[in-house]
Write a structure and sequence with these properties.
4 domains, mainly alpha, single chain, 28 helices
Length: about 725
């Protein structure tokens, strides 16, 4: 039986939500056992709610960092719960405290994600305290601190489990994160391979757009992996144990830069080599390298050997195909073949990165292995971050104001209508109210659907299983299911937490009597949150398109400047270069996310989505050309010896910055006729250039120059209001 069970258990261990859910299961079961021994079933609800709030406050960290976070979380929970207890019978003082605390807690998101998560969980625990007090009639048979003590005790119990778990399995989250990263790279390489499909009439723009959206997922996975590694490096005096993951991260960065490179317009390649197999060989190689990334992810999780042999064979076949094309000696192919050679060299280097994965501790090309610290550096930095966001132009400020208003209005409604279990209105509002309209609407309908499913399931299960122990077991299973699914299947998660509530409250009262009030409160709380997002400083994403587009181009210009410096001083994978590269991809991913949100907005606000996606496609193509330049950096000082070519690169940087500046001001973008002349000159020079490195630099700068023309047109459409004649801006 052991071999039969080992494989399924190992696969369970590789699921990201499994460890999270297992910790919750241990905490809920432990609380149930204590309650069973004590014999006071009324204690169970605040204990369970404290465990849930603590689990929601959990952030990734090393065990020392998690212990510090736990202490801070418990302090916040204690203050919030005691404040609710003391002010519960004084509505006017309570609503003032609710407004101030909600706004202040929401603004902590400006300091950092860790602080925002703890603040969000603290607000939830405060509402849990209201629900607990309301269920006991507004007063307790115990002293005033009894409910807060139970809530915080449940939170502390889960926190202790979390800290111990983190100390015992400190590197398991790293394995999971790196596996997710390489799976996203696999998906990226597979999408990249579709660009080389030798079919005429292929919709290249649609595939580029899909690639740009997947690029955002890769960037998010890279950022998550980096943060996990950084937090654990802080805890290591000798970080040798983490070197494997640090080097895997650097390898993934290099693979991403090489995979996102473009060396020539794909339409020209398909048209020229339609009757040859070379594009198929490129497609096959990219697919095999994607398979290698998937195999690497599996080997990290299941501790299996990793073998990139199939991609090596595909590379050998590609080189044979290129050699056959060179042997035909057709002059009209000369420029394209040199670009294909550069692409083949790039994929060869990508394959080399996959090959050295097997022993990353022994091989590293990064003399500077430092990572950028985005956490606040002292109280002054915290103050400055908060001050920068204390303005209506800040999305965090607007969200804080909307959430505060939603909770205050919800509190007024429950006092006006006096519904049964009215504080569920506030809980629904805090879960549904999101920073933008699209996310709020999505969570609203998922919350309502999940609540209905959970209420129906709860009614059926309570009716079928009246036994107390069975109902509490169902509550524990529902709690585990909530944390297992809340990240990806919010409807199921909402149904699970609703089922947990019904089963628990049925032990101290009438669970059936909670069904209709819970549904009513969900509808009221969700409606209040939705109206707040629509009416209070609405954050329509369409209005930010030109601003985010400008940030994308500004980040690309800084990336190009960093690349040019590498061609002047030689290849250095230092922090400044890696930061410029990562910021360029982060900005591109942010634009993709913003456009995804635009598509969820009302018709009148998503009318410019198509224009935005066209701009995204052009901006991503620009980034691909830049990535090719970055991927081919060498130790030779090409630009240091050529002032004219260096000046050409600087003029391209200036043009990109000019488009970005005009886009930010929503000013007309002038025509870039000089860019076309510059591109033609560079292409002519490249056709006669004997040096491969200079020719590649000239070719890529020419591609970037030509890309400025469609990019400028897309930018002009972004800044031209609908219904106006765009010809004026296009001809200015």
């Amino acid at each position: 039986m052991t071999p039969l069970l080992e494989q399924p258990l190992r696969r369970l261990w590789t699921l990201e939500a499994f460890a999270y859910s297992l910790r919750v299961f241990i905490a809920l079961t432990g609380a149930l056992l204590v309650n069973w021994i004590v014999g006071d079933v009324a204690m169970l609800i605040p204990l369970f709610l404290g465990i849930i709030a603590s689990a929601l406050a959990e952030t990734d960290d090393n065990w020392r960092g998690r212990l510090i976070s736990l202490v801070v979380t418990l302090a916040c929970f204690s203050i919030a719960s005691l404040s609710v207890e003391l002010l519960f019978g004084h509505p006017w003082a309570f609503v003032v405290g609710l407004a101030i605390s909600t706004f202040a807690m929401s603004m902590l998101g400006a300091v950092g994600q860790r602080y925002g998560t703890i603040a969000y969980a603290t607000l939830i625990l405060a509402i849990y305290t209201m629900i607990t007090l309301e269920s006991s009639g507004g007063s307790s048979v115990h002293v005033f601190w009894w409910e807060p003590l139970l809530l915080v005790s449940g939170a502390a119990w889960y926190g202790v489990i979390s800290v111990i778990w983190c100390a015992l399995f400190s590197r398991q989250p790293l394995k999971l994160s790196m596996a997710v990263l390489f799976r996203e790279l696999e998906a990226y390489l597979r999408l990249k391979a579709t660009l080389f499909e030798p079919l005429q009439g292929l919709d290249i723009e649609a595939r580029r757009l899909a690639l740009a959206e997947q690029n955002g997922k890769v960037v998010n996975a890279l950022n998550q992996a980096k943060e996990m590694i950084f937090r654990r490096l802080e805890d290591q005096r000798t970080p040798r144990k983490l070197n494997r993951y640090l080097h895997l991260y650097f390898i993934a960065q290099d693979i991403h830069e090489r995979a996102s490179s473009s060396h020539y317009p794909y339409e020209s390649l398909v048209e020229t080599f339609f009757h040859h197999d070379v594009l198929f060989r490129f497609q096959r190689l990219l697919e095999q390298q994607g398979n290698a990334c998937r195999s690497l992810a599996r080997s990290l999780l299941l501790q299996r050997p990793f073998d990139p042999a199939q991609s090596e064979q595909a590379l050998h076949d590609l080189k044979a195909s290129l050699a056959d094309l060179h042997a035909q000696q057709r002059p009209e192919w000369r420029g394209l073949l040199r670009s294909l050679d550069a692409l083949a060299d790039n994929l060869t280097a990508l394959g080399h990165q996959l090959a050295i994965v097997q022993s990353p501790d022994a091989v590293t090309q990064y003399e500077d292995a430092s990572l950028y610290d985005r956490s606040p550096q002292g109280w002054r930095d915290v103050r400055d971050r908060l001050r920068r966001h204390l303005t209506p132009s800040s999305a965090i400020f607007r969200h804080a104001l909307r959430l505060t208003t939603a909770l205050v209005v919800g509190y007024g409604v429950l006092h006006l209508v006096h519904p049964t279990q009215g504080y569920w209105i506030l809980l629904t509002s805090i879960f549904v109210c999101r920073p933008n309209f699209g996310a709020t609407q999505r969570f609203l309908w998922q919350r309502i659907s999940g609540t209905v499913v959970g209420l129906v399931a709860g009614w059926a299960l309570i009716s079928l299983f009246p036994n107390q122990l069975i109902q509490l077991s169902i509550a524990i299973a529902a709690g585990v299911l909530f944390f297992a699914t809340r990240g990806r299947h919010y409807v199921i998660a909402t149904a699970a937490i609703t089922l947990l509530v019904l089963c628990c409250f049925n032990q101290v009262g009438d669970g059936f009597g909670l069904i209709w009030p819970r549904l009513f409160d969900t509808l009221v709380g969700g409606s209040i949150a939705s109206l707040a997002v629509m009416l209070i400083l609405p954050d329509w994403q369409k209005r930010r398109l030109h601003h985010q587009g400008a940030e994308t181009l500004e980040a690309s210009s800084r990336y190009l400047r960093a690349i040019l410096e590498q061609y002047i001083g030689g290849k250095q994978n230092d922090l400044d270069y890696r930061l410029a590269r990562r910021n360029a991809h982060n900005a591109d991913a942010a634009l993709s996310t913003l456009l995804a949100n635009v598509r969820l907005e009302p018709d009148q606000f998503r009318e410019d989505a198509a224009i935005g996606f066209r701009f995204l496609g052009n901006a991503y193509t620009l980034l691909s050309y830049l990535s090719a330049l970055g991927a081919h950096r060498g130790d030779t000082l090409t630009l240091a010896k050529d002032a004219e070519l260096r000046a050409t690169g600087e003029s391209i940087v200036a043009d990109i910055e000019e488009i970005a500046a005009r886009l930010r001001r929503r000013a007309p973008v002038p025509a870039f006729e000089a860019a076309e002349r510059r591109a033609a000159r560079l292409e002519a020079q490249a056709s006669e250039e004997p040096s491969d490195e200079r020719r590649l630099l000239q070719t890529q700068l020419a591609l970037i120059s030509r890309q400025l023309v469609p990019l400028r047109e897309a930018a002009s459409r972004l800044i031209t209001p609908k219904g106006t004649n765009s010809s004026a801006s296009l001809s200015s």
